[in-house]
Fold this sequence. Notes:
Order of helices and strands: HHHHHHHEHHEEHEE
Number of helices: 10
Largest sheet: 5 strands, mixed
Structural class: alpha+beta
Shape: rod-shaped
Distance between the termini: 43 Å
CATH superfamily of the largest domain: Histidine kinase-like ATPase, C-terminal domain
CATH topology of the largest domain: Heat Shock Protein 90
Number of strands: 5
Strand content: 5-15%
CATH architecture of the largest domain: 2-Layer Sandwich
Oligomer: single chain
Mean pLDDT: 80
CATH class of the largest domain: Alpha Beta
Radius of gyration: 39 Å
Amino acid sequence: MSVPPRTGDGSLRQPLPDDVAIGGNSVWNRYRRYPVFSATWLGGRTLLFGGMILAFAVLSSLGMLVGGGSLRGAVLGGGYTFAGFLVMTTAGPAFATLVRHLRLRRERLWVVVAWIAGIVAAYLGDSWASSHINTLLRGELGAGIDVEALEAARPTGPVAQALMVTVKLMTLAFIYGLLGGGMALRAYFGEQRRLEASRHRTELAALQAQKREADLRLGALQAQVEPHFLFNTLASVRALVRQDPARAEATLDALVDYLRATIPRLRDARPGSGEAAIRSTLGQQLDLCARYLELMRLRTGDRLHYRIDAEPALRALDYPPLLLITLVENAIKHGIEPKPGTGNVAIRAWREHGQLCVAVVDDGVGLQPGVGGGVGLANVREQLAARFGPRAGLRLTGNRDGGAQAEIRTPLESAA
């Protein structure tokens, strides 16, 4: 049953990657830069072996001429020699090449079967050629050969004959197996191992490149979130200085606490500073959100109430930085600030079906047209997609009694 080419195996018509190919650029081994048992590989190998066999066949023909044979007999003997050795060396690789181009399931097993079939074909081809050559030699040089003496020299005992047959079969199997593609079969399996290693290196490099790109995008997200938050807070402090100096002082103290926690991470998270710089835990992100909410509480004149619920075991898990604070800021800006009176924000973390779920819930004005398509939430979605692909996501929903809920789900096994 044929199947389409497997992803990552590459085309049999294309040269192997440089880290997989073992052949050089010389004429006689250039074919080795192509996949073993491909059409190009088989053609190059056949030309190489065919040239050597042809030279041997010519020497055999010359030997028959020198030994007293006729020109016709020498040509026929060389032809039989060439045909026999060509079948012997090419049948197995040719069958294996056909298997690879058919794209059969369990290809490696069928390649071995093809090699064994090639050994059988090699034996038949060699027997056919040897029979014709022996007949030709008897006809051309029979007068000079003592056939009876050769027959008398053979062992006559059953044990000796059995031993002779066993040695002969083992010798023929070794010759047919080796010349008939045994080394090529070994090269094929070695090539498969190198291809798998190359594919693994390529996938690893792609993941590392994706991670670096995610880190750079995270830096852009930080550049958008931090100055915006800082400028708004300083503007609020400026307004409070004359109206409520004590609250202004408390707000500045809260801002200092927040900046002490965030500025070192901003400095360390510059592009190129290393992977460890952008690692954080859920607990660290929840603490940043708590400092932010405390600032908002002071800025809004105690209109804001908040709570954070997360088990200590969850707080210790790795978690992407600056995603939760974006959701919290979004809840304040679009939910709590437009609402008259007091407002509540709750952050809750829990495990569910192998995922870490973190929700930011507010009882503000609820979802309004246009909410959910801003830059902040778009950045959150982009970060989740870059880091986790389809295994993570952001869901924004409205609550029945008013307000909204933003929920991030990430895989527990690789939270950051």
